[in-house]
Specification:
The structure holds two protein chains of two kinds. Chain A is built from three helices and no strands. Chain A is mainly alpha-helical. The longest helix of chain A is centred in the first third of the chain and has 44 residues. Chain A is rod-shaped. Chain A starts with a helix and ends in a 55-residue tail after the last helix. Chain B contains nine helices and no strands. In chain B, α3 packs across α4 and α7 crosses α9. The termini of chain B are far apart. Classes of the chains: A mainly alpha, B mainly alpha. At the A-B interface, α1 and α2 of A face α2, α3, α6, α7 and α9 of B.
Chain lengths: 131, 187
Amino acid sequence: MEEMDLLKKLEKVKAPPHFEQKVMARVSLRKKAAERRPAALRLSLAGAFATLLIAFVLLNIFVLQKKAPVGVADIKKGAPAAEVVPAASGQIVSVIETLDYSTEVRSRSNGAQTIYLLEQVSYTTSKEILY
Amino acid sequence: MSMDEHELIRQVQEGNEAAFGQIVTAYKDRIVNYLYQFTGDYQKAVELAQETFVRVYFKAGQFRPIAPLSSWIYAIASNLAKTEMKKARRIPTVSLDEIAAHEVGQNAYSEDPVDSGLLKNLREALSALHPRYRLPVVLKDMEGFSQEEIAQILKKPVGTIKARISRGRRFLKTRLEKAVAGGKAVL
């Protein structure tokens, strides 16, 4: 086709001078960027691990630390309430727990309560039951 | 593929930059010209050609010697060119005055004299051709590849390539005939 022969006559161009140098410069830049990527990944992983470790230590110290209850004998001796008893001592640790029995008593009312006093009215000591 | 090219690409796979430099020297003019014929913009063609060779370097390990090295390099260049054309459609067009000034600069590296009127019309018709048809027409009629090689480069069936070349040529012929009939061509 004649027109296709014309296509071959269209202006042809060449690569500019120093083309190879520019390509090699691009290759070097890309290599450096590729090297930086694993180092950045390693640093961020190390940072994340360090953060987790610190968080774990802080959690153990301030939140999960268990304080064993102080025995009555220790309180009498004047030991402070916050004293920690070692868990591996093997002794029986008494647990003092205050309980609210107000909810346990069904017939309890908020009004005035009647108190019954039992008084001995007779000095006889007969044990027979009189009907 | 020649034994030299086979050996060169093998050395590039091993990281030999001197071998890579030889490949760049051997193909730089062809690739720059191919991309220029496709995009119509010399600076863009140079930029894309540089990127093509960078990708050749980093993807050398993926090359399989079942096709010629030239087909592989042209395939990378074609993909880059297609992507660039898609981006260019979203970017506002440049004025004709800027293009004219730019073409004056491009002639410093051209092998042929300035286009005549008919050739100018042909270039305009080529620019108006859709990239889908422009690529195979340029590869066939300007770069001299066979239809089978073009099919390998563009990863399309040979029948599709034949049809696209045929349609592309028909479009160019119609546009040229209209231009000549309209008296725009200056011979």
